[in-house]
Amino acid sequence: MTEELDSVDFAVAAFRRDGAWQVQELAAPAFESVSSLAESLQRLGGDEGGVAMVAVDEEFFVLVRVHDAIPRVLLSDVGAAETWELAQSALEFLGVHVTGDEAAPAGDLDLLHDLGVHTLDLAVLLEDGEMYPDEQLGEIARLAGFGAEFDEAVGAGE
Hints:
Layout: H1 2-6, E1 8-17, E2 20-25, H2 34-44, E3 50-56, E4 60-67, E5 70-75, H3 85-94, E6 106-107, H4 119-127, H5 133-144, H6 147-154
Antiparallel strand pairs: 1-2, 1-3, 3-4, 4-5, 5-6
Helix pairs in contact: 5-6
């Protein structure tokens, strides 16, 4: 598990407090599983819940949204579950069983709809084979309205 934790490109939580977006880094063990991500988001609170964004080894990302104490999950690549425990945790949470080496997303494409990230927008981003997971998450953050805060938290452009 230590090797996997070292392979996390970044793990951040985004939430609004008093109407302003805040993005902060999440430290291990907060990003070890979907459950630990959801618990971290619940502890942070926020006006309307929060969003955890985790990019791993330039291979895949996991989004966890907690709103009204209900976690929702999106995994960018189900094939990552063969190698990564976090991806496996996402599939277990979703109740999805994968056979073979699939490279498709799984989960709730509508989890950020109320933040302005529509299902079609997410689907298009997930199908873009030219973008790395960190770039996809950056675009999602921009669409949701916290792009500048996200860039600052992950050190984008440095």
